[in-house]
């Protein structure tokens, strides 16, 4: 299984993904520049990504906690998500996300 991550220079990376892993962990374990400072407990917003339009509707909705954290993030768009709040499963085979700019 895999996901596709586009880094801040526009370079695409195809990353191996395992069921049940957080998207943030998959990105971090492949040594792409994502901080994930809080370790995935939805309290830092340094795992911010933009989800490709084709995928937005296929992801589970944001929980309130994620919404609140995104309120404080930098460069938030309609397709913003915290990647630690998305667990990989086979339904997400080929998921495409873009790393968001690092916060100011
Ligand atoms: Fe901190 Fe996602 S890793 S909110």
From TrEMBL:
Pfam families: Fer2 (PF00111). It comes from Fodinicurvata halophila. It comes from the Bacteria. Belongs to the adrenodoxin/putidaredoxin family. Keywords: 2Fe-2S, Iron, Iron-sulfur, Metal-binding. This is 2Fe-2S iron-sulfur cluster-binding protein. InterPro entries: 2Fe-2S_ferredoxin-like_sf, 2Fe-2S_ferredoxin-type, Adrenodoxin-like, Beta-grasp_dom_sf. PANTHER family: FERREDOXIN-2, MITOCHONDRIAL, FERREDOXIN/ADRENODOXIN. Residues 2-103 form the 2Fe-2S ferredoxin-type domain. Gene3D superfamilies: 3.10.20.30. Its cofactor is [2Fe-2S] cluster.
